[in-house]
């Protein structure tokens, strides 16, 4: 699988999302096995949040990673905006670490912009980093204006990454946010990279251009969507699946090299935005 540089970390370009995982006891064993399979086959980045299942996803991740060398994993979690004040953030972080069964996070994300002054949020995240419980901090669901505001506060330029919805059918951030992040060396974490919401991705995969490019590479349209999401070498995609077969396909997508002709065809079918669009969120 392709590896990408995430500031001072080198990680695989395709990791594993865990939204909607961990709460369904009937599906728990399969979900655990799928995440274990992913780690065993190179998808060593795991993205979760205290919000997901009110901590259930973190508990599932903790159950999975206890059997692996923690130093070889890159674990991401997120905190609610209403936990952005210092004491609340410390409690939220400690609770996440307990559920995950680890003494540090590789990346801790401010889940979406809230009412706490941004300078205070940054200062608190910097304090969590200095404590050793967080190696890096970042943000999620930040648009261009949010990132510009972040850049202007003390310590804001220490942000490791921004996690936003991004896929071939939802490329609003291609107009201004993504170019800004590339210019400022802020990697993107793409959630819903195959448009998992409400089955929309399944409709996208029927589009002629995706079908054609998939045939060229003898892969599925979903795999082309993933390969497209990470095409710039500065994006981490975190698809979510509870299927080992789909996990295998996700990992294999990390080795697909899209050609110039492929990209041109896909751009024609799914054109870049020509103006600023509101940030797409699910």
From TrEMBL:
Give all residue intervals belonging to the NADP-dependent oxidoreductase domain. Answer: 13-268
Q: Which InterPro entries match?
A: AKR (IPR020471), NAD(P)_OxRdtase_dom_sf (IPR036812), NADP_OxRdtase_dom (IPR023210)
The residues annotated as the active site are 52
Q: Name one GO molecular function term.
A: oxidoreductase activity
Q: Which sites bind substrate?
A: 111
Put simply, this protein is called Aldo/keto reductase
Q: Origin organism of this chain?
A: Nicoliella spurrieriana
Residues flagged as site, Lowers pKa of active site Tyr: 78
Any one Pfam family match given in the protein's UniProt record, by short name: Aldo_ket_red
- Tell me the leader sequence span: none
Taxonomically, the superkingdom here is Bacteria
Stretches of the chain forming a coiled coil according to its record: none
CDD domains documented for this protein: AKR_YeaE (cd19138)
């Amino acid at each position: 699988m392709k590896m990408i540089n995430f500031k001072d970390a080198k990680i695989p370009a395709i990791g594993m999302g865990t939204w909607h995982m961990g709460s369904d006891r009937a599906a728990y064993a399969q979900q655990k096995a799928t995440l274990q399979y992913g780690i065993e086959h190179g998808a060593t980045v795991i993205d979760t949040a205290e919000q997901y299942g009110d901590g259930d996803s973190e508990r599932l991740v903790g159950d999975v990673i206890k059997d692996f060398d923690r130093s070889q994993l890159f674990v991401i979690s997120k905190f609610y905006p209403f936990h952005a004040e210092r004491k609340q953030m410390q409690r939220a972080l400690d609770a996440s670490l307990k559920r995950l069964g680890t003494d540090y996070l590789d990346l801790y994300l401010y889940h979406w912009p809230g009412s706490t002054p941004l300078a205070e949020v940054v200062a608190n995240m910097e304090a969590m980093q200095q404590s050793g419980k967080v190696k890096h901090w970042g943000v999620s669901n930040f648009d261009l204006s949010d990132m510009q505001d972040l850049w202007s506060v003390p310590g804001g330029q220490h942000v490791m990454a921004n996690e936003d919805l991004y896929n071939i059918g939802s490329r609003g951030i291609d107009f201004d946010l993504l170019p800004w992040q590339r210019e400022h060396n802020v990697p993107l974490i793409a959630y819903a990279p195959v448009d998992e919401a409400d089955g929309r991705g399944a409709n996208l995969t029927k589009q002629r251009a995706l079908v054609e490019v998939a045939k060229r590479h003898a892969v599925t349209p979903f795999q082309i969507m993933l390969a497209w999401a990470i095409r710039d070498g500065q994006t981490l995609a975190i698809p979510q699946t509870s299927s080992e077969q789909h996990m295998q396909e996700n990992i294999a997508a990390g080795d697909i090299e899209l050609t110039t002709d492929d990209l041109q065809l896909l751009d024609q079918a799914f054109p870049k935005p020509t103006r600023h669009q509101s940030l797409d969120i699910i």
